Amino acid sequence: MNTALSLFSAEIGLLLVGILLLMLLVLNQRKKDIIYSKYKELADTEARYRLLFEHSPIPLMEEDLSAVKTFVDALESREISDLDQYFTDNPESLSRCVALSCVLDANRAALKMYGAGATDDLSRLSTVLPEDQRLSFKNELVNLKQHGGSELILENRRLDGTVLTVERRAVIAAGFESTWSKVFVTVIDISEQVRLRNENKAFEKQLRHTQKLEAIGSLAGGIAHDFNNILAPIMGRAELMLVENRDNPTIQGHCRGIVDASKRARDLVRQILTFSRQVDQEIRPVFIADVVREVVQLVGPTLPTTIEVVCHLPDTSSPVMADASQLHQVIMNLVNNAFHAMEKQGGRLILRLETVSLNIDEFNAGSSVSPGLYQKLSVEDTGHGMDQTTMAQIFDPYFTTKPRGKGTGLGLAVVLGILRGYGGEIRVESKPGKGTIFTLYLPVVELTTDQAFPVYDPEEPMPRGNEHILLVDDEKSIADVTTSMLERLGYKVTVRISSYDALEAFRNLADGIDLMIIDLTMPQMTGLQLYREIKKIRPDIKVIICTGFSEQLDSRQSRVLGIEGFLNKPVIMADLARCVRSVLDG
Prior knowledge:
- The protein has 586 residues and is α/β, with parallel strands linked by helices.
- It contains 17 helices and 17 strands.
- Helix 7 packs across helix 13, helix 9 (288-299) crosses helix 10 and helix 14 packs parallel to helix 15 (527-537).
- The protein starts with a helix and ends with a helix.
């Protein structure tokens, strides 16, 4: 019986062992199935990840910063907690961190952006990070340490050296926070956006500059009007004293000094008005070579022997449409600037004129010139030159590098305003110690017929007359001096300082008045309004409009309105005499 029991127990044991073995086999198979299933899921996830990674339009990279993390941990063990300050004070350590940063993988978009053929070409971050941007990379390390991620904008470079502005975002992969052995990075090229943003800023700056010029121009006009009203009687009285004291050399000398100073003041007012583009111009075909020769002949004797003037002017050239006096002013200004640049050490002043053809690519989008033939005038000096900061400001109103009392700061601003008003442009090239070249471009005009313009000899006697003139000016001092000028020329003058009084006087004397000289800017009734009223009374009456400044009228517009003559204040006696005689005889 004991034997049977033993056998039964053995059989039970074997059965249990078999059951256990079977259970182990089943569990092992289930484990294998689970492992295989997880492996397959992981493989599918990896495949999807690789697919998304490779085909993402956004440049993606995987980086290994484990060596950098070891370096940062070592700093912490030395109780260096302020990484920002440490890397600022120790840029060599930051460069070391950049060198330790490895790129494990890069997708197609990243390879294309950097111009790389394979990931191995981007194995080191230092490959695409310029030296001057490594301080920016410091911010990434600080943010990774504090927040586990980073966003910053910095410059990168393609493998061919092209500079890129990129938006770089980095985040430590989950599970790798302690080692930084896997960091996901997106790098977006924003170079075009930055370029457009900078262009917008430049346009905004240009707009502000234009608005500033307009404001200064409006202010200049008002100042010029008041200043001319003060200047006119000073110049007029001096001219009358010259005429009345021909036998007194002392008085003649004093009066010439007053007239010369008044003319300089008048020219300054014209500069201000030209700068604001609010001055009347006499546009006609002008040969630049002739103007250059006049300027050189004028300034040549005043230049020191240490400055040599060299002119390369063609025998024949095409004319440009411009005001000769303004063009003279432009060239004189540039020549004077060149002289001041060489005043101490001497040098050469070179003026070169040639005809060039400009295509659409010659100037940038902000330029005022269009394709075509141009007269190109270069004014070159071998003076001290200018740096980039100075060159960026030379066309700003009231900016000057000359000592106090030697420059108004309006010269180049006026030059730019004149040239652009003619459809031209100016360029400047300069380097400190290497001299400066100003290059002017003015569009060529083809003449179909010969044009003759009157030229007056300053020594020619002033024309006279005996007609009756009604003079209207609300400034009594100007009215008085103009009356004296006209009476010295033989005319009979009736004066009124009010538009309404003048209209009443004309009603009473209409048949006896041969000519009216009317100030344009007057209270109550302007010169144009008075002109219209008197034309209703007597349509054939001849009128000269006189003004120092006006946005409403210039000589061309006055002719369109039927006004026979136009004079700019302050009026020179010779100009007044010729204008009056020309209108009366016309």
